[in-house]
Amino acid sequence: MIYNSINDLVCLSKENKQEIWQIILTCQAQEKLISEKEVFSQMREMYFAMKNADEQYDKTLTSPSRMAGGDGQKMHEYNEAGKNICGDFIGMVMEKAIKMGESNACMKRIVAAPTAGSCGVIPAVYLSYQKCFNIVEDEIVKALLISAGVGAVIAANASIAGAAGGCQAEIGSASAMAAAGLAYLQGAAAEGISNSVALALKSVLGLTCDPVCGLVEVPCIKRNVMGAVNAVTAAQMTMAGIKSAIPADEVIDSMRRIGNDMPVCLKETGEGGLAVTPTAIEYREKLNNIDN
């Protein structure tokens, strides 16, 4: 990888007079030993898969635990009724994030972005942005390349796994990746993209991974909504000229340290946090009875 940090991406963008997505495209082509055109095509296929997963959402499905299913439809109906005070775009982001998370829990095809537990964040932001603002598909693919590059940096310098770094590493990483791409779509230069990463990620530092019954359902699905909306607000602050006091790479380093300091019970083991509440224990007992 020709870049090891967000700052590397910014510097390479300036030195080569290229946009960040072009730097990442070239790097991926070199690593995979394929053409840049093929890399771009592969990323387009990834976006198609996200679209298909969204379009094939089934409101009648529930997960085996019965803890997930149907909420995406409820959000859709609420939005259609014009009651969502967040507006059309944010309302749609919320809806698509839930739908993707529920589809994952119900064993339908999804795209890990960067993980299955955070699969709703990036699709929710990009699918909604394209639909609401009529953006050409190539621009979305470029934004996905930026997301991929940001994710690679986070994975190399911290973690994208809840078991290693808590949910900050999953939802947090996805949120930062989506914020970076959205900032690009709105016209941000390299520094703005970097800033959006910092603003999004530092807002979720310390987020625990405490899945009820050890399943990627509660609170994971609704956290996808939070991560997606957080990405949008980070990009909007960036576009307004608001700058993070702490650079993106230092935020990523902080996420790694926080993850290392986090007790094991709060890192996807189901032994702490929400996972050991009285209601969560009841769910676990019911699930055990189903299995038996």
* Poorly predicted ranges: none
Q: Whole-Å distance between the termini?
A: 49 Å
- Nearest-angstrom radius of gyration? 19 Å
Give the amount of beta strand, in percent.
under 5%
What overall geometry do the principal axes of the alpha carbons give? Answer: globular
Main sheet: strands, sense, barrel: none
Number of distinct beta strands = 0
Helix content: 55-70%
Query: Can you write the helix and strand succession as a string?
Result: HHHHHHHHHHHHH
Domain count? 1
Taking all residues together, what is the mean pLDDT?
Answer: 97
Instruction: Please give the count of helices.
Output: 13
Structural class: mainly alpha
Give the gist of this structure.
The protein has 292 residues and is mainly α. The chain is 64% helix and 0% strand. The N and C termini lie far apart (49 Å).
What does this structure look like?
This protein has helices at residues 6-16, 20-32, 36-55, 71-80, 88-105, 121-133, 137-157, 162-165, 171-185, 190-202, 220-239, 248-261, 278-291. 64% of the residues lie in helices and 0% in strands. The protein has one domain. The longest helix has 21 residues, at 137-157. The protein is mainly α and 292 residues long.
